[in-house]
């Protein structure tokens, strides 16, 4: 896993409907050190391109785009979702649909800031169905500029956006591609590291009860059996998970490695988690 994938596993939250929340480090609270790593990685991946402008869309793409722009030493322009009194003169307009917010917006860019000589790198935080990117591509084309590449922090591989954009012939680089099973693995990691009943924000069905085994003089066989039961009970709170098989647990130093196969409506996956 690369640095962003590791951060998603550590701090990401998967909500019902396959919505991945990364607001603790990406699109609400922003980890600028992480953004710097992302900017340097995009600079490396598009090193052969003559980029003279970064384009993104408000709001959550702006932070990443600014860091990327600093790495390329070029200006950044962001498409606005509504026309304000601060924008005067002619504008480029495109309509985009938001997967997360389930709504359509007209986005605009002043014609003063995009020109035919511009070689544009489009940057955004998420790629789902690709509507936002197609809107930005439309704006660059209307300006007569060239889309040299597209950089995405997190691509939802279980949706069609990445395939659509690549099939259009654009150079698309995603730092992390989250498949349906990947999102489920993130959910499992977080659930198995959350003690049940400890946090009021979670329901009584969420989390594990491993602490009930701490300090008890149970036999190894009984302890392993209880760990398997508690693990399966914890994970089956997720409606996509049907059960687990091939369960093993091994104590390593002060931690226990749980190894098992997840059986879900999305498929099967071998998983190892330290708790």
Number of individual domains: 2
Number of helices in the DSSP assignment:
7
- Helix and strand composition category: alpha/beta
How far the N terminus sits from the C terminus, by CA atoms, comes to: 19 Å
Summed over residues and divided by their number, the pLDDT gives a mean of 87
User: Could you describe the largest sheet, including whether it forms a barrel?
Assistant: 5 strands, parallel
CATH architecture of the largest domain: 3-Layer(aba) Sandwich
The CATH topology of the largest domain turns out to be: Rossmann fold
Low-confidence stretches: none
CATH class of the largest domain: Alpha Beta
Radius of gyration, Cα only, in angstroms? 22 Å
What oligomeric arrangement do these chains adopt? Answer: single chain
Q: Helicity level, as a percent range?
A: 25-40%
Compressed to H and E, one letter per element, the order equals HEEHEHEEEEHEHEHHEEE
Present the secondary structure layout:
Elements: H1 3-11, E1 13-15, E2 19-21, H2 32-45, E3 53-57, H3 61-72, E4 76-79, E5 91-98, E6 103-110, E7 119-127, H4 131-143, E8 146-156, H5 161-167, E9 172-178, H6 180-192, H7 220-235, E10 241-252, E11 255-264, E12 267-274
How does this model look, in words?
With 275 residues, the protein is of the alpha/beta class. It folds into 2 domains: 3-178, Rossmann fold (3-Layer(aba) Sandwich); 181-274, Nuclear Transport Factor 2, Chain: A, CATH 3.10.450.40. The protein has 7 helices and 12 strands. The strands form 4 sheets. Strands 4-3-7-8-9 form a 5-stranded parallel β-sheet. The chain has a 3-stranded antiparallel β-sheet with strand order 10-11-12, covered by helices on one side. The chain has a two-stranded antiparallel ribbon with strand order 1-2. Helix 2 packs across helix 3 (61-72). The protein is elongated and about 75 Å long. It starts with a helix and ends with a strand.
